[in-house]
């Protein structure tokens, strides 16, 4: 069984996220999403989520491409996650191009093109108008 992992906040879930998850799943048989906790988002990514972790987790778990959701609590857990879950492929959007190449010692690393014109920030901006 080929296992894939990806990481993210996935706040205000939108079709760009779904396109990423769909393509990530296509690279294997089992997709794990490491979902940024509220604390990690606030302390390390300066992101204040609209939906708290439990709701973002529930939304992700309802997606057909997602097999397991685990917490992302820090920047340093990726290598141990890849080892613990015996991951074959790590997938991220290409806004992270190159940033996680250190994982190439442990698994395949794939950066996929982001879906243009949509982002959680853009949604918030548009709704604020
Ligand atoms: N994404 C995408 N297209 C968009 C928006 C997002 O492909 N229009 C992808 C991102 O590239 C990322 C995933 O969807 O791979 C989740 O996006 P975010 O929730 O914004 O994730 P981010 O805050 O970048 O967190 O350790 C890694 C971080 O947790 C990534």
Key descriptive features of the protein:
five-stranded parallel beta sheet, alpha/beta, globular, binds [cytidine-5'-phosphate] glycerylphosphoric acid ester
Explained architecture:
The chain is 34% helix and 22% strand. It has helices spanning 15-25, 38-45, 53-61, 78-84, 120-128, and strands at 3-8, 30-36, 68-72, 89-93, 108-112. It has a five-stranded parallel β-sheet. The relative contact order is 0.22. The mean pLDDT is 97. The site of [cytidine-5'-phosphate] glycerylphosphoric acid ester has 17 residues, from strand 1, helix 1 and strand 4.
Bound molecules: [cytidine-5'-phosphate] glycerylphosphoric acid ester
Strand count: 5
How many helix segments? 5
Low-confidence stretches: none
| Widest sheet: strand ordering | 3-2-1-4-5
Strand/helix succession: EHEHHEHEEH
What is the averaged pLDDT score?
Answer: 97
Largest sheet: 5 strands, parallel
The geometry reads as: globular
What portion of residues belong to β-strands?
15-25%
Helical proportion, percent range: 25-40%
Termini separation comes to 47 Å
Radius of gyration: 14 Å
Which class best fits the helix and strand makeup? alpha/beta
């Amino acid at each position: 069984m080929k296992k894939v992992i990806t990481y993210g906040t996935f706040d205000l879930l939108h079709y760009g996220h779904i396109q990423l998850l769909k393509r990530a799943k296509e690279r294997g048989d089992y997709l794990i999403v490491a979902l940024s906790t509220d604390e990690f988002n606030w302390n390390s990514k300066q992101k204040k989520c609209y939906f708290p972790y439990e709701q973002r987790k529930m939304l992700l778990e309802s997606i057909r491409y997602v097999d397991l959701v685990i917490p992302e609590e820090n920047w340093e857990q990726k290598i141990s996650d890849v080892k613990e879950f015996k991951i074959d492929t790590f997938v991220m959007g290409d806004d992270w191009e190159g940033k996680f190449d250190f994982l190439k010692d442990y698994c395949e690393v794939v950066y996929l093109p982001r879906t243009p014109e949509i982002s959680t920030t853009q949604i918030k901006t548009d709704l604020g108008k």
